Amino acid sequence: MIRAGWILFVVGGGFLSGCAAPPEPVNAPSSQPAPPETTLPVGIIGQVEPIVVYPARIILEARIDTGATTSSIDAYDETVFERDGKRWVRFYLLDRKTKKKYKFERPVTRFVRIVQHDKKSPRRPVVTLTISMGEVVLKRQFTLANRHNFAYQMLIGRNVLNGQAAVDVSVSRTLNPEIVNGD
Q: Which pTM value belongs to this model?
C-alpha cells in the first residue's frame, strides 16, 4: 500500500512505473507515514546506497538511477587482452576513502558505445561483477567508465534493480553494507 507523502518507483518486468498518492487533507495529523512494504529481495532503497564489490570487498557509494539501462563502475587503466582465445580486460578500482587500488581481470561480455552529445561516442567494455546490496549477493553486468569527475563511483541501473529493489528517492543510505560470502 502506498501512503500519502511517498513517491515510489518500482522496477520490474521491464516497466518503470511511478505513482504518488494525493496529498493528505489539511486537518490530517502531521506525523510521518510508515514506509510502504515490499516483498522484493533487497527491499526499498534510496537514491544513494553503499554497494560491496567482490572479491575485493570494497564498499562504494552508488547513485541509484532508474533511468539507466545498464549499471556502470569507475574503472581506470583499462587494458583489453586475450586469454584462452577470449577477450578479457584488466582494470583498477580506487577506494577514494583509503586511496587503496584494487586490480580486477574479467572476461569482456560485450562492448557498448555510449552516446554523448557533442563528443565522440566511446566504446566501453562490459564485464560481469559480483556485488552485494545489503545481504543480497548479485552477479550483474557493469560498463567500465571513467567516473572520476562524478560524486559516486558506481551507478546502479535497471539491470541490477529489476525484480530486486524498489526506489524511494526521498531517502538515502538505507542499506547496511554487509560483507557476505560473495566471490
A: 0.77
